[in-house]
Design a protein that fits this description.
Shape: globular
Helix content: 25-40%
Oligomer: single chain
Bound molecules: flavin-adenine dinucleotide
Distance between the termini: 9 Å
Number of helices: 11
Largest sheet: 9 strands, mixed
Structural class: alpha+beta
Number of strands: 20
Length: 407
Amino acid sequence: MKQGVDFDIIVIGGGIVGLSSAYKIMLNHQHIRIAVLEKEERLAAHQTGHNSGVIHSGLYYKPGSAKAKTCTKGRKELIAFAEEHKIPYEICGKIIVATAEKELDGLEKIFYNGRENGIEGLEKIRPDEIKEIEPYSTGIAGLRVPCTGIIDFVKVAEKLGQLIEEGGVGNKIFTSYEVTGFDKHDFYTRVVTNRGTFDARYVINCAGLQCDRIAKMDGVEPEIRIIPFRGDYYELTEQAGSKVKNLIYPVPNPDFPFLGVHFTRMIDGSVECGPNAVFSFKREGYGKTDFSLIDSWESLSFRGTWKLFFRNWKYGLSEYTRAFSKKLFLRQLQRLIPSLGAGDIRPGTAGVRAQAVGLNGAPLDDFVIERRGNSIHVLNAPSPAATASLAIGDHINQLATEYFELK
Ligand SMILES: Cc1cc2nc3c(=O)[nH]c(=O)nc-3n(C[C@H](O)[C@H](O)[C@H](O)COP(=O)(O)OP(=O)(O)OC[C@H]3O[C@@H](n4cnc5c(N)ncnc54)[C@H](O)[C@@H]3O)c2cc1C
């Protein structure tokens, strides 16, 4: 297909969504030349490399939604991929624990939702069964989700990168290449980067925390804005590690697309506690006081952000105070494991979620993918996009095949 362009398709973003998309296009169109441009020195440097490492089952998501469909399909594909390429993973299961009467309705809803989504082995558990599974956890009712697992998504991303370069006809991953603009022509796009230009017939924007900015550069005025939400983690000390066998989750607040602070045994054996969800003044700011004038201006000059704040100021304030107070964070964790003490936890890592928010102040719940001319823009790919990535890649391949008339 290549004629006078450097690449047939340029994918912007070397996170797991961009890489899965490039990989699936490569598998389905072997003669097409693809480049992935990543601004950082390594792949998976942002959301993909700062997450909880959980292979989600798909039980929370609205039946029939893109999240529900791609999570269940993507999870199975991810496991097969990990098996094939010898990436360590474990299907260890998780429990969701209700600790107060007022959470029982929510727990029930998740159960029926999960049943509708066909989550294998999902069952209700009693307080004594919670104790059998997680001896240090206490609750009044719970759910057991045996098909949830853990994996290192950075390893998955790196393997995808390797396969993309090894397969196809001259595919290339460029790290340290930041896309700064587009020069649009009738039959191709000149993609401008900090280190020169590339001509491509088609562009796929998978830039995560920067995806709305890339879309704007391409002339798309999305009616959403990426609002960054930082998630801080603590980790259990080695001595306290034995208090968590696998994964323990609370019943999430149904008004927010976040799952609430939970305990996650990571694939390396450590146990993370978190993440909270705090408005961040910097899109790629992992420190509690990180600040970017341009990022803050873009978030705070958007009408939707203020509507979101006004509607949820109580929740926002309590998340904010918890972010700066170990004592309050601990109190939240003690709801799931009452015997946890201050000496059992120490500050851990942080991640920043790219949460698309609409003009009406509502966080967008489902994945959003839009086409504009010779480009496809992934405008919202929050959790469980890492779990679902290979299925999202299939979907983007289908869109690219149709829109770009790929042979
Ligand atoms: C705290 C946290 C916990 C999570 N937990 C889970 C979980 O347990 N399980 C799960 O399934 N999902 C989880 N998620 C969600 C999941 O990590 C993300 O949905 C997924 O990683 C999104 O992948 P992505 O490729 O879209 O974005 P990213 O991984 O952020 O990748 C986007 C890439 O684009 C690059 N980029 C941006 N701008 C440019 C530019 N101008 N030029 C070139 N490159 C550019 C960035 O550097 C980045 O590498 C979590 C997310 C967070 C933040």
